[in-house]
């Protein structure tokens, strides 16, 4: 039921165009993500500490382990992807700033040569 509710909120967020609505939904997504993280840690603890070996081999034990591992893997995968996107964005911003600085310095250099043509003739 929680996953279905989360999916409904996600698709409502896609339809919403107001900034205040988007902020509220982002806060909600963060809380739900934190809940899933905590719940998957609890699932791993239950599987490891409270289940017997026989119970771990039952379908419900396997399902608890699989759900917990999938949730943690998705969470860490999303964090890694966001980190990569942020690093690439920072790199692109730095490259764009450097390119702009180089073009401005080249423009300044060309402008200085054009302003004083006598110096150029004296050097010859």
Describe this structure in words.
The protein is mostly helical and 124 residues long. 92% of the residues lie in helices and 0% in strands. The chain has helices at 2-15, 19-50, 53-56, 59-115, 117-123. Helix 1 (2-15) runs antiparallel to helix 2 (19-50) and helix 2 crosses helix 4 (59-115). The longest helix has 57 residues, at 59-115.
Strand content: under 5%
Number of helices: 5
Q: Rounded to an integer, what's the Rg over CA atoms?
A: 28 Å
Total number of beta strands: 0
**Shape summary:** elongated
Q: For the terminal residues, how far apart are their CA atoms? A: 84 Å
Q: Find the structural class using helix and strand composition.
A: mainly alpha
Largest sheet entry: none
Percentage of residues assigned to helices: over 70%
Poorly predicted regions: none
User: How confident overall, as mean pLDDT?
Assistant: 79
SSE succession? HHHHH
List keywords for this structure.
92% helix
Would you summarize the structure shown here?
The protein has helices at 2-15, 19-50, 53-56, 59-115, 117-123.
